[in-house]
Amino acid sequence: MEDLVGAAAAVREKAYAPYSRFKVGAAVRGASGAVYQGCNVENVAYPEGTCAEAGAIAAMVAAGETRLTAVAVIADSPSPVPPCGGCRQKLAEFGLAEVPVTLATTDGARLETTIGALLPGSFSAAHMDRT
Ligand code: THU
Predict the structure, then answer these.
(1) Which of 18, 26, 53, 93 could form a disulfide with 87 if both were Cys (CB 3.0 to 4.6 A apart)?
(2) How far apart are CA 50 and CA 24, in angstroms?
(3) For residue 12, which of 36, 35, 39 has the smallest C-alpha distance?
(4) Is 41 in the pocket of ligand 1 (CB under 6 A)?
């Protein structure tokens, strides 16, 4: 997972966060093994900003992949930053519950979790199947 954390740390430098000044980097590994990176991109109309995880997922889908096998998120924070609720749902769309997620700080702290632990009882396509 450290290569994925490294990819997240590298793209974090490119984050556009002039309002919060809180730069976040994310990296996801696609089923092919390729790594996709994303950073947060804020907007003066605050709700229009996007999270690092969303950027990494968008890069993966744009490259033609729809399954992810590992996730890393990094920020310069006192403790590893957990993905927001919306990003948990976005990750669950493309990764199984057992997919490992490493939450990291630039100081070297690590918290290992999974998509399923981040979003227990998640809404899925199966909930819409009544046949
Ligand atoms: N942010 C992310 O990009 N990912 C997270 O997991 C937590 C929060 C961003 C959104 C916003 O640009 C800034 O961090 C402060 O909330």
Answers:
(1) 53
(2) 11
(3) 39
(4) no
Q: Domain count of the chain?
A: 1
Give residue 72's identity as a one-letter amino acid code: A
Predicted TM-score (pTM) of this structure: 0.95
* Cα dihedral: 11, 16, 18, 22 (round 10): -40
> What residues have CB less than 8 Å from 95, skipping those under 6 apart?
28, 67, 68, 69, 71, 115
Of the residues 42, 48, 53, 65, only one is catalytic, namely: 53
> What's the CATH number where 24 sits?
3.40.140.10
- Encode pLDDT of 24-38 as tens digits: 999 999 999 999 999
The rounded mean pLDDT for the chain is 96
Query: What residues form DSSP beta bridges with 101?
Result: 71, 113
Which structural domain, as residue segments, surrounds residue 58?
A: 2-128
Which tokens sit at 123?
């809404």
Q: Does the structure show a pLDDT above 90 at 42?
A: yes
- Ligand 1, atom nearest to 49 Cα: 12
Band of residue 131 on the pLDDT scale cut at 50, 70, 90: confident
